[in-house]
Every structure is written in C-alpha cells, then in structure tokens.
Amino acid sequence: MKIGIIGHLKHPIAKPHAGGLESFTDAFVRRLSEKGHEVTLFASGDSDPSLPLAPIVESATIPDSLRRLGRVHHEWVESVEDEAYEQLMNKLGQQSFDLIHNHSLSPIPLRFAGLMPTPMITTLHAPPLERMIGELQARGGFQCGQFVNISNANARAWSPFLPNQSVIHNGVDTRFWKRCGSIPEQRAIWFGRILPDKGTHMAIEAASLARLPIDLVGPISDDEYFQSEIVPKLGPNVRYLGHQRHDDLCRLIGRSAVTFVTPCWDEPFGLVVVESLACGTPVACFDRGAIPEIVDDSVGRIAAPGDIASLASAARQCLKLSSARCRHIARQRFSFDHMIDCYEDMYLRAQTGVAA
Fold it and tell me: Is the pTM of this model over 0.70?
C-alpha cells in the first residue's frame, strides 16, 4: 500500500529520541517500509534523513522555539504547527495515497479527514487533548476518520468524545530491545524524560530504601526540577548517565536487575515498561494508566501510586523474577510484528470500507 504517515512536529524523529512517540514513529515507519509498503513520513526537516521523509516544517517546533524565543512559547508552537498541518492536508487531498495514518497531536488533520477521498486513521497516543476534543465535538467523531487507541485505559479516557475506537497496544522492536551481556548486576535503572510527571525523584528514594544503586538515563526536560530534586541526590549510588543512544541504553537496561517506572500521571501506555521487559529486566512500577495491562506478577510488581515503601518492596521482589519470562511476554504480547499485523488488518478494512 501507499501510506502517508503524519508525524508530530514538536521534536525531530531522530535518535537519540526525545521521547516515546518519536521512537515509536521512527520504528513504525521503518517496519512498514520493510514489509513492502511505500511509506512517506510527514515530519520536521531535522528528522533522520534515512527515513522516507517529506518535511512540512524546516525544524521541530519546540527546539525551534527555544532557539528563536529563548523558551517554549506554546502559542507560537501551535501557530506554526497549525499552518504546516493545514497546508499538508490541502495537498494530501490531491495525492494518490491508499491511506493516511495520523500520529500527530494536532486537531488540524481531524478537521480535514471528512473532506479527503483517502481514508484516514488516527492513533491516539496521548490522553484527551483540549484542542482535539474541541474538533471532535464541533464535527462529530464520525467525520474525523477512524481511531485507534494504544491501551484500554486511554480508550476509556477518550470514550466520552469517541464511543467507537479500536485498541491496538503499542509494540517494541524485540529484535533490537534484548538482553545484551551477561548476568545482570544488583543495581536498578530508571530511564525516560526527566521531569516531575515522570517521578524520577521517587525512583531514587525507592532505590535507596531497597538498598539498590540506581542509574538514571534520559534527556533533562525540566532543568529546574533536575537541579532541585535530582542533583542533590547524586552520588556513588545514584548516577546520572545522560541521554544515551538506544544501543547503549539497551545495554544498560539489560545489565540491570530491575527497572523503576514511576509516573505521576496516568500514562496512556508506557513504552519504557515493554522496552525493559524485552531486555529481560523486570519492572517495579506505580499503578497508573495502562501499566496494569502490561505487567503481571510474572514480570514485575505494581505498587500503589506514590507509595515509596511499597515501590521499594516491589523492587526487592523483582530481583527473584525470571529474565527469560520477561523477554517471552514482551515478544508474545508486545512485539512490533504483532502490532504491525494488527494495523495492516485495519488498513485493509479501512481501504475496503469495512468497519474496524
């Protein structure tokens, strides 16, 4: 099939990825291409040139806002993105794609979906966003294309505005995410974007209580939070290793005995959980969002949200879990191949007009 992928514009689709959506989009486009589809990715011009890229802005909007204005000016970001997406949707109506798959966080593609001759599917990667809700309420969801959610928990959050959604869990490339190296060390890891919503400081506290040294890996998305809550806790048992390349991150996860996952909000999915399991590392995590859909007692332990003592106990219990079982669950339930098969089935249904 000839497929147009609408990416989001806030960060480039390039390694080291700013977050889960960038990583997902990169891998998704590559796997569709590997399977023989003719794919075009509409994203920012500073994305990875090895992708089948058709830039719709020169630079990703958040880094561009920081360069131009010295801060993330959200109104400016929205204005630039709205104009870029509007121009794109006008052009897509004149092009011969079999299907458009929207992974953006913008309401503009929804506005044009009902006017296009090509079917459009939107994957909802985030909790309900005010501007997207406004578009759905103004036009009715049936005029905005078909929708896929990445978890049952996130689908429930969207259900007041979208009663008809399919659910396809996110997947990870289990050919890439795998255990690299020998027997894991008796230490923990936390990885992701460092900001209050991700609860990095609670992972440090829980690791200390569990008497486990911990490595922190990821980009600093909130410098004030990092300086006030993380830096004072750094030392021999708490190391910040920076924003690592994915192959190095894979090695670091695989050598760890447990991964802490500490969201302070309801994560729509939780790619870090599946990436950890694919590397054979169990997870100690908070009961938030979609995490209970991924983790059972054979691959991790779930603690009450914000309960540091419970999280520390969960981490100690994870040390007894099977690395092979973690890997098996990731491959069986959350592999990229399984996810792509589900999407391809939906693509065929959308192209032939059969309801999902």
Answer: yes
